Automatic annotation (TrEMBL):
Catalytic activity: Hydrolyzes the link between N-acetylmuramoyl residues and L-amino acid residues in certain cell-wall glycopeptides
Segments crossing the lipid bilayer: 44-66
Organism this protein belongs to: Novosphingobium umbonatum
SMART domains reported for this sequence: Ami_3
EC number: 3.5.1.28
An example Gene Ontology molecular-function term: N-acetylmuramoyl-L-alanine amidase activity
Lineage, top ranks: Bacteria, Pseudomonadati, Pseudomonadota, Alphaproteobacteria, Sphingomonadales
Designated name of the protein: N-acetylmuramoyl-L-alanine amidase
PANTHER family referenced in this protein's UniProt entry, alphabetically: N-ACETYLMURAMOYL-L-ALANINE AMIDASE (PTHR30404), N-ACETYLMURAMOYL-L-ALANINE AMIDASE AMIC (PTHR30404:SF0)
Amino acid sequence: MPFASDSARPIALPDGAGPVQAVAQDVEGQGRELVPVLGWRRGLVLGLVAFAPLLTLGAVVAVNMAMGQSTFPPSYAARIELPANAVQIGLPSIEGPADPTRPLVVIDAGHGGHDPGAHGPASGGGTHIEKDMTLALALALRDQLLAKGGVRVALTRSSDRYLLLEERSGIARRMKADLFISIHADSAEVEGASGATIYTLSQRGSSEEAERLANAENRADTVNGVPLAQTSSSVSAILVDLAQRHVAELADDFVKLVLREGEGHIAFRANPVQSAAFVVLKSPDVPSVLFEAGYITNPTDAERLHSPQGRKEFASATAQAIRLFFVRERSAEVLPAGM
Ligand SMILES: [Zn+2]
């Protein structure tokens, strides 16, 4: 069951000093190489310089100067000290390799605690509850990723507990995740609705978030480690826009991999790729998708996702898509010498 958009609700503030350098490394840990970037991740600036007009370039220089860098291209690193944050929930533990340069995926099991989500009939007269199904799928996905290695994994919840929508995406942002996946199970009044759907953030949701970040009271926020309070409003708007475009492209890339790797393993519905203004998808600097793994109201879908074999198929295909996504992203991150 998807979440409604509610842009009036606050989003948990991110934390921590900005990233100082990107480390390119494939999932197997080969070919590690330090890569200079403009203080935020994924070679955003390289892509920026490649396609953006002079206005953008000017904005980048302005940001560099605001951050104490007087030259362009900048030197290796810019450390940014951020003010103390508002009250935040604790961050979950990270499982997998201890190497902090390995990519991090944050898996969000939808609903939980007093929010059960959708429900559907189970065989034998019982009931499938969405919050239980999403947690089981999230755990199965984690297990698959850990079994293959190379990827760090964190769960927004690993038990039956309630989290605000903003806390879920906020955890991914604060942990500087490389990918965020929120797992849900769909529901429909219509009999026969079945199959998985994968959502990315819609243009409307993207615009809403850009507007929110541009508001004065949200200028304590950071995007890609750059504190917006240290930039002018026009530079902030450009930074947010570029960051959003970049993560939108990455999310689209990931969706394509899920469809490809899921073929024959995950039963997708017709038109399985959708966009919506879901709150959990609004991180401007973390590629985010919401995965409706199937219809809990459809007995076939529900029984498959409830079965250990069905869960494993879902998890195995999705884990493979995640691993390929990171391999591609990391290899694209390697910048030419001298940048
Ligand atoms: Zn749901």
